[in-house]
Design a protein that fits this description.
Strand content: 25-35%
Helix content: 25-40%
CATH topology of the largest domain: 2-enoyl-CoA Hydratase, Chain A, domain 1
CATH architecture of the largest domain: Alpha-Beta Complex
Distance between the termini: 97 Å
Low-confidence stretches: 1-22, 280-285
Mean pLDDT: 84
Number of strands: 19
Largest sheet: 6 strands, mixed
CATH superfamily of the largest domain: 2-enoyl-CoA Hydratase, Chain A, domain 1
Shape: rod-shaped
Structural class: alpha+beta
Number of helices: 10
Radius of gyration: 37 Å
């Protein structure tokens, strides 16, 4: 009786490790470990032999699955390989009825071996490289969209758009853009300064400016006093001022534009300067401009020009400005090249 039990235990131990002629249960996984991503089915077969099962996705012939399994009575060693255009991109090990998340599963009914009931759920299989790339790009686009914050302000005919992108690598500050369209007046100078306080330049770990807040101006002019205030705010916050392609920045807008630490004129954008004037009406009720504004006012303008450019450039700009006394006309400079020649524009950013 004792010998009978010993025989049964020995037989059970033997059969539990009994597998097909490929070797012991660990052989498959050890050899599968040697197969890197990118191997073809032929290269896999050179190491593991022909797969017991081979599935092709009926909806996409580029996708396939090769299945291997060694088995004993109480355990098995299963490995499979997903292939995209005959190149392995994902290995799956030890499938069972609980691993449908990999797309490979069985009903657990091994009548004669460990792969009779293997099934593939193609809706759950790992993404192939092409689909993975599309999914990652889609995720990146969604992330970028979440990181872009845009607000628009409508103030008595003035339109200001404040754009923020939080996805940039800044130790402090961020990427900000402010677009202004409309007349330069108390509302615009007040609103712009408030927004500049919320829009610090992007700086790195050395406190160096990586990217400046950009203010894009599109205005026919307005109050000179507010042009000064806006320009001085631009200089105080070290921002970049921009006149967009095919737009104009005139009069008080031109004065404000000079406050940018960096000044950009894109494409065929125009900037126009003219003498400060006192508005009035003539005997016929028509609008007129009186440029007799006094020494103090002209000296204030000259000082501003020279502070924002240089002594020489400021004086030249003053001379050209005072040649025009009009509410509608002035000294016009068009495009970056001409503006850079006179010290008005300082940076070419390649955008048109």
């Amino acid at each position: 009786m004792y010998k009978h039990y010993i025989y049964i235990i020995s037989l059970t131990a033997f059969l539990s490790g009994c597998v097909n002629i490929k070797g012991d249960l660990g052989t498959l996984s050890r050899n599968a470990d040697l197969i890197p991503v990118g191997y073809s089915l032929k290269q896999i077969a050179d190491i593991l032999g022909r797969p017991q099962l081979y599935f092709v996705n009926p909806n996409d012939r580029n996708l396939a699955y090769a299945h291997y399994c060694y088995w004993g009575i109480f355990e098995d060693d299963a490995n499979g390989f997903f292939l995209y255009k005959d190149r392995m991109y994902k290995r799956v090990q030890n499938h069972d009825e609980y691993t449908r998340s990999t797309g490979v599963y069985s009903n657990g009914d091994y009548s004669t071996n460990c792969y009779n009931d293997v099934r593939i759920d193609w809706s759950r299989t790992p993404l192939d490289p092409a689909s993975q790339a599309r999914a990652e790009e889609s995720e990146k686009q969604a992330l970028r969209a979440r990181q872009k914050i845009s607000k628009e302000y409508f103030i008595d005919g003035l339109i200001i758009n404040h754009f923020q992108y939080t996805g940039v690598n800044c130790v402090s500050g961020g990427f900000y853009q402010i677009k202004l369209k409309g007349s330069i007046g108390p509302d615009s100078s007040f609103a712009i300064e408030k927004l500049l306080k919320r829009s610090p330049n992007c700086e790195d770990e050395n406190n160096e400016i990586v990217s400046r807040t950009s203010v894009i101006l599109n205005s026919g002019g307005g109050m000179l006093k507010d042009g000064y205030m806006m320009g001085e705010a631009f200089r105080s916050y070290n921002v970049e001022t921009v006149i967009g392609s095919d737009t104009i920045c005139a009069s008080a807008c031109a004065v404000a534009y000079l406050g940018g630490v960096q000044r950009v004129i894109r494409g065929q954008a125009m900037i126009m300067f003219h003498s400060p004037y006192l508005p009035g009406l003539n005997a016929q009720g028509e609008r007129t401009a009186d440029c007799k504004i006094g020494t103090n006012a002209t000296q204030e303008l000259l000082t501003y020009y020279q502070n924002m450019t240089s002594v020489e450039e400021g004086q030249r700009l003053m001379n050209r400005t005072m040649s025009y006394c009009s509410a509608e006309d002035g000294w016009v400079v068009k495009g970056y090249d001409a503006a850079e020649l006179f010290g008005i524009a300082t940076k070419f950013d390649g955008n048109f």
